[in-house]
Queue: 3 jobs
Job 1
Amino acid sequence: MIFALATPVGKSAIAVIRVAGEGCHKKINSSLDKPINTFGQIFLRDLRSQEGVLDSCMLVFYKSPKSYCGEDMVEIFSHGGLGVVKGIVGFLEQLGMREAEPGEFTRLSVANNKMSLNEAEMVSTLIDSIDEHEVMLSVAAISGALSERVVRVGDLIDLLRVELESQIDFSDEDGVNEENIDRMGVMCNDIIKQLGDLRNNSRLVDDVGEKKSVLLVGPPNSGKSSLFNSMLGRTRSITSDIAGTTRDMIESEMVFNSNKFSLFDSAGIRDTNDEIESSGISLVLQEAKNQSLVLVVVDSTCLDFIAVSKKILKDVPHIIILNKSDLGDCDSHPGVDFTVSAKTGFGVSGLVKGVAELISSVNQDKERLFLINNRQAKLIDGATVCCVNCLEKISIEDFELAAEELKQSRARLDDFIGSKSSDDLLGDIFANFCIGK
């Protein structure tokens, strides 16, 4: 029997502890003030050890195979205090249970055919998702839509293999039927197209869960640091009338609606003989090209920096902000996207909203239907190469090698779904899961 804390460690209103394995119902029932004999319903019970009541908990019993992992399961919803959780964990260990390994519950789910391997991989991606689009793509994979597409392509490969095998068996007796060859060529082309569509409609997960970054740049005393603090709603960066106060990158996390990003303040860009300040400016220019979005901050005394910044940033997503509107310069200027006052707060809320909307759209491919990882992408690519090789073999009537290429292509799709996966592969995949999953 295994157990794991399924919620983050720390003070909270509720903590969720999962237990799984044959006999877990009996073990837990023996520790309750009143036994539970119904599955799939939530009950309020006192959980007791020999020393006394550990906590008043909500519990749900699940009967195999109708549980997340396909095993008998119990979910305990306790109060989230560290002392409460520690006491329950220690008690479960006394009952002879062990703490689950990372991803062990989901690995059991795959072993018990509750979900395919690619669906299980997307569980981790869903947890790492930080915006609605990433969630939508992850859920599409977990719900089985991606698996269904792969299975359909696999079925087409099986049909073509049957055709090829029949040609191998009967071609020596009846000769080659040109119509059959043409038909098999059409079937193979259709498989190649469907694999290509699947690959093109999928987005790699490399950037999922990674925070977007927003960098403020501009001349000294343009009010970058003041605007940085105003956007955060608190003082995080030192402000001064002395040029060159900010000499390093200062970072703070921002969350607006569902958009999460890192906001960076930076050294003012100017010609300087100060070695430390010059180093900071060089860092700004280097980092600007790697940002999700750059906010160029100017005031009415340095409008010429707009043209300079556009030349430096080129294809980097950026917006131009005219600061210090409280000094009376609220007129529109060519190239300015937002007019604000970091001092009074004028226009700052609109700026934050605009930044969040831009961040959500930067590098966002709304046409993609699924998320796949590098392992899955390589399997689709490999399956496609095998089918292309098969088409070539069909054209020269080498049906045995064509059938072998299809066999290799199907094997890659089987690996994608996880119907024939080694223990080593499963161990590598689930090693990066959180303990309670």
Job 2
Amino acid sequence: MNLIGEHVDYLGGVVLPAAVDRHTRVSGRQAREWSIESNVGGGLDYLRAIGVELGAPPQSVAVESEVPPGSGLSSSAALLVAIAAGLRPELDGVEAALACQRAEQAATGVHVGVMDQFASALGRRGHALLLDCSTLEYQPVPFPDELVIAVIDSGEHRSLADTPYNERRREAEAGDPKRMRHVESEIVRVHAFVDALKERRFERLGVLLKESHQSLRDDFEVSTPTVDALVEQAWGIEGCLGARIMGAGFGGSILALIERGRETSFAEAMKREVIYCATADGAFTHQVKAL
């Protein structure tokens, strides 16, 4: 998931993602043709694409995932990185992330950035990653124990291929003033967020999340009325520092930062299921068993 820095990775900006403790587990064996069985359904196009990208022979693969598809939690990146780690565990993590990015673009026709794959591959427990998407230089940023990451599903699930995602990207790449106002201000917010984490100014984190959502809503126009209502509900709950739409938008989930110890009261006030996440290692942060 991305703490802040939305819709700037494919423009070479800086982002602050983290791998979280919702896992996708993959097992498989060589076969005559590509096949997949998954508890969340689908995935064959992704499997074929990453197999071709890595030059692997056909595999019969079984997937068990804790990452709900279409919710903004990067389920496709988790699947691709898990498969890549099984097929080519010796790969450098950066190379793996780039291969998974190319595979997702090939499988979907959506021109995604590298952030989701990078975090899934190289995330570090107890940290977020400050990633410069123009150079792929990154550094771990400690994430405070006093804060909990909350994810609330809006119920509006989507496939990016069915949204204006590519249109927004084209507009930003063409320099549309409204889209670029979001991009430029969001990059400033990423740096400010990192400073606030280091200085433990937790209220400042909340302000930046609120500003990020407003910019994504008004300037980049990737939110929805349902998501806006959910974010505003979270803003008004005691113990919630801030919240915003997360992921590519057009539905999916919202992210909120909660003071530790407020989890139960926050979920009760939201009146819906809340997933609490902790930072975790990525698939290439340590050695994994090959398929």
Job 3
Amino acid sequence: MKEAMQYLDLVPDWLAGVGIFVLAAAAALLVYTVLSRALLAATKDTPSFVRSLFLRIRRLACLALILVAFNFAAQLPYFPAQFGEIVSKLLSVAVILLVGWGAVIAIDVASSFYLKRFQSEAGDSIQARKHFTQVRVLRRAIDLLIGLITIAAALMAFEPVRQFGVSLFASAGAAGLIVGLAARPVLSNLIAGIQLAVTQPIRLNDAVVVEGEWGWIEEITSTYVVIKVWDLRRLIVPLSYFMEKPFQNWTRETTQILGTVFLQVDYLVPVAQLRSKLAEIVAQSELWDKAAVDLQVTDFKESSVELRMVVSAKNSSDAWSLRCDVREKMLAFLQAEYPESLPRQRIEFSALVAHENLDSDDAQPPRIPARRNGGAS
């Protein structure tokens, strides 16, 4: 060691320092190469979680090993003690950040590995969408928590910042109040995200009605939910909204849904024939799931009869298309077969003419009052 130090005295200080760090990096790369090849060879035959995780963080692990090697190199007697302390503190902060980054990647790999079994049935299965929603919301919440802990740990490595942070959180003054108020929306959405993942009032791909807009849950982030509206607009709603306000979820228990079609017709309508035609229309449609079809007279109005047709489909999109198809074909059926059953207005005329006015040559034509009536004439 002494002989090595003597040789180092023959070269410039900056060049010797660079050489020491280069050797440390080379040693770290050598250790990384040996360990990585051994690990990849051990997990070659099975796509295990360990192999998947290492493939994602191998560059990060290599950088962490190099930083550790730099830390050891900075502690050599060749460098001043003050220099070693500064480098050690900076490298420890860098390692903390890398560890936090690696933890985020590990959570992402673990969640993806867990969700692989539900990939094929994610579109229609309630159970699959439940797991996707829980895992993604919790993953974002955990990522945010890891980020906060990592930054806090990195700042605590510096004495001035640590004292400032302790005094800031311990104080009950104006600064603490301002920080608390500023962090309230973030914390409320974070807590709402955890509640949403546990209770699951909504899931990915759920059909919902929010603020009068109908659409599907497209994305759930750590602070907001993206709803894809039927006309391809996007409605952005805070997470806390779904824990504080009422909304409609059409696929809470099952994706199957009943669709209704209302028809206003004349009192002469043949209800039995329309009921048979409805059964024929849905039987020829691929959108009908063969679960329910019915036609009922639900109301009498002044000049029309209200018919309600109920059809079922496997999801809300099919139900919407099936309802439109039923409207179109039922209208064409009425126009072709029973045009008198379409809504119409009736006018009833009545006249009372005095007998003596009929004998008078100067009698004026009688005034005939007109009266509208919604009933049969």
